[in-house]
């Protein structure tokens, strides 16, 4: 009788244990299946973060003080600007297919750095030739660089040049500029007085 009672008590326990085991399998499978996409998504995010870091490093190559021996001195900024500008102009002098190779070897942000280091109306005037060369090399002017050039032209008293560069896309290769940059040009032009014309018939650059 005792044996039968133990058997009766043990029966449901074994059933409950068996039921628990039967449910363990699907839970494990579901956990494994939901984990794989999560891991894949996590790896994708990590790759995107690596790409963002690489782009940030490219921008850092041309930080305002990068490569300047004595930050803040006009002489060193002029020297740095001249070196970068010369490397761009030298690339277009290469003949044939090697020209594209020479253009591709220019550091990222070279054109923008030339604009950033422009300190006078004469400097921004030179951007005409640099932009033409940039276009001949088959390189694009980014929106960020275009905005930088517009800002430098307006700040240095040449909003008329900013307007010319932004509108003549065939010659200078500007993209469509943001409305904020266009507003900057219009506001600067509203207070702009053209430079007086010299005896030779050329507009004298402001000091």
Structure description:
The longest helix is centred in the first third of the chain and has 59 residues, at 2-60. The model is unreliable at 5-9, 12-32 and 44-69 (pLDDT under 50). The chain has helices at residues 2-60, 74-92, 98-104, 110-116, 121-136, 143-155, 159-167, 169-172, 179-190. α6 packs parallel to α9. The protein is mainly alpha-helical and 207 residues long. 71% of the residues lie in helices and 0% in strands. The N and C termini lie far apart (117 Å). The protein has 2 domains: 8-50; 74-190. The chain contains 9 helices and no strands.
Can you describe this structure in just a few lines?
The protein has helices at 2-60, 74-92, 98-104, 110-116, 121-136, 143-155, 159-167, 169-172, 179-190.
Topology overview:
Elements: H1 2-60, H2 74-92, H3 98-104, H4 110-116, H5 121-136, H6 143-155, H7 159-167, H8 169-172, H9 179-190
Strand content: under 5%
What composes the largest sheet? none
Helix content: over 70%
CA-atom Rg in angstroms: 33 Å
Looking at this protein, list some descriptive labels.
mainly alpha, 9 helices, 207 residues, 2 domains
């Amino acid at each position: 009788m005792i044996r039968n009672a133990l058997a009766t008590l043990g029966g449901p326990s074994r059933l409950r244990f068996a039921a628990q085991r039967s449910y363990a399998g699907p839970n494990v499978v579901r956990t494994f299946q939901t984990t794989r996409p999560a891991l894949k998504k996590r790896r994708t995010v990590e790759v995107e973060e690596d790409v963002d870091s690489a782009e940030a490093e490219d921008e850092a190559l041309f930080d305002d003080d990068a490569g300047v021996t004595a930050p803040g001195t006009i002489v060193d900024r002029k020297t740095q600007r001249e070196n970068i500008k010369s490397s761009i102009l030298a690339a277009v002098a290469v003949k044939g297919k090697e020209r594209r190779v020479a253009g591709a070897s220019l550091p990222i942000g070279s054109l923008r750095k030339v604009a950033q280091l422009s300190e006078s109306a004469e400097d921004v005037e030179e951007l005409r030739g640099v932009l033409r060369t940039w276009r001949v090399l088959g390189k694009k002017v980014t929106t960020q660089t275009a905005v930088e050039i517009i800002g430098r032209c307006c700040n240095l008293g040449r909003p008329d040049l900013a307007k010319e560069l932004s509108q003549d896309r065939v010659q200078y290769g500007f993209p469509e500029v943001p409305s904020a940059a266009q507003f900057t040009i219009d506001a600067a032009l509203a207070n702009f007085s053209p430079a007086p014309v010299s005896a030779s018939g050329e507009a004298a650059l402001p000091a």
